[in-house]
Design brief:
Distance between the termini: 18 Å
Order of helices and strands: EEEEEEEEEE
Strand content: 35-45%
Strand order of the largest sheet: 1-10-8-9
Low-confidence stretches: 1-22
Structural class: mainly beta
Largest sheet: 4 strands, mixed
Number of strands: 10
Mean pLDDT: 74
Radius of gyration: 14 Å
Helix content: under 10%
């Protein structure tokens, strides 16, 4: 899902896996999450760093709407981990080494 918060907020993308479109390998950084829940007990859950991408990377004049399908353009960094370089309402044309990933937009916070 893709999340955002406020005008200077953040958004994110991730659907529990990385899209390997165009036959390219995509490696994503994970962030810590508490694997213990009072109702569900111990469980494993991956959370990706791209799940909180700055809203400034949104590429459209119109604001995104809740649950709108969006495309996150991923590009590998110097450490070979892919990061979000842009969030688009339609599929962007990827550059060399870039991969688009599709997910829903979600808004949290005030």
């Amino acid at each position: 899902s893709v999340r955002s918060q406020g005008p200077q907020g953040w958004c994110g993308a991730g659907a529990g896996y990385a899209t390997t479109a165009l036959g390219q390998k995509v490696m994503l950084a994970t962030t810590p999450s508490d694997p213990r829940d009072l109702l569900y007990g111990d469980f494993g859950r991956l959370r990706y760093a791209i799940s909180e991408t700055p809203l400034s990377r949104w590429h459209s004049d119109a604001a995104p709407t809740r649950r709108q399908s969006v495309f996150v353009l991923l590009a590998p960094g110097s450490d070979s981990l892919s990061t979000a370089v842009g969030v688009y309402p339609q599929a962007p044309k990827p550059g060399v080494g870039q991969v688009p990933s599709k997910g829903p937009w979600q808004t949290f916070g005030p």
